[in-house]
């Protein structure tokens, strides 16, 4: 892959990559750092690229995210009860969006990744399986379980 083609491909999916990483780590600055690391790794490996560029780049970014989780001690997790709020504010559209984002942040890493890739990035299930390096049936399971968790937590 030439340098120019790499740059063109990155321009097409740069926003999606950042959105995907932000949904995984819930921190825009950290998402930018991981995206930068992923792009450097992708550029170094671009001579070996074959196939769907977006899925390939997301796979590299996902690996960078996992590497980050291994390096950094995990923060104290909060439970779904953190989503509970007083009545009267549920009709506010901005609040509903924020509540969904907080619920997504509560999902286990694999469920959150599958949900983000499917619903935010519109990746086909087979590409999600490639990105996460798991069987297609597992992707379907993670999406189902993730949706159920979100439904349960958002009702609180």
Q: Can you describe what's shown?
A:
There is one protein chain. The protein has 156 residues and is an all-alpha fold. The chain has 2 domains: 1-74, Orthogonal Bundle (Rna Polymerase Sigma Factor, Chain: A), CATH 1.10.1740.10; 85-156, Arc Repressor Mutant, subunit A (Orthogonal Bundle), CATH 1.10.10.10. Helix content is 73%, strand content 0%. It has 7 helices and no strands.
How many separate helices?
7
- Give the tally of β-strands: 0
Please state the overall shape, judged from the principal axes of the Cα atoms: globular
Please give the domain count: 2
CATH superfamily of the largest domain: RNA polymerase sigma factor, region 2, helix turn helix motif
Strand content: under 5%
Helix content: over 70%
C-alpha Rg, in Å?
17 Å
Task: Give the low-pLDDT segments.
Answer: 76-91
CATH topology grouping of the largest domain = Rna Polymerase Sigma Factor, Chain: A
The main β sheet shows up as: none
The top level CATH class name of the largest domain: Mainly Alpha
Q: What is the string of helix and strand elements? A: HHHHHHH
Brief characterization of the structure:
By secondary structure, this protein is mainly α. Helices cover 73% and strands 0% of the residues.
Keywords:
mainly alpha, Arc Repressor Mutant, subunit A, 156 residues, Rna Polymerase Sigma Factor, Chain: A
What is this structure's SSE topology?
Blueprint: H1 3-25, H2 28-45, H3 53-71, H4 93-106, H5 109-120, H6 125-132, H7 136-155
Helix pairs in contact: 1-2, 1-3, 1-5, 2-3, 3-6, 4-7, 5-7, 6-7
């Amino acid at each position: 892959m030439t340098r120019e083609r790499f740059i063109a491909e990155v321009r097409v999916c740069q926003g999606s990559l950042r959105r995907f990483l932000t949904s995984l780590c819930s921190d825009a600055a950290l998402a930018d750092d991981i995206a930068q690391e992923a792009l450097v790794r992708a550029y170094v490996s671009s001579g070996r690229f074959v196939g769907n560029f977006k899925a390939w780049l997301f796979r590299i970014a996902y690996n960078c995210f996992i590497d980050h989780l291994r390096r950094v001690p995990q923060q104290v997790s909060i439970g779904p009860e953190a989503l509970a709020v007083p009545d009267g504010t549920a009709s506010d559209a901005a609040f509903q969006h924020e509540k969904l984002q907080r619920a997504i942040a509560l999902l286990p890493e694999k469920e959150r990744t599958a949900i983000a890739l499917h619903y935010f990035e519109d990746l086909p299930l087979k590409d999600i399986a490639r990105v996460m390096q798991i069987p297609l049936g597992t992707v379907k399971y993670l999406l189902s379980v993730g949706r159920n968790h979100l439904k349960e937590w958002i009702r609180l």
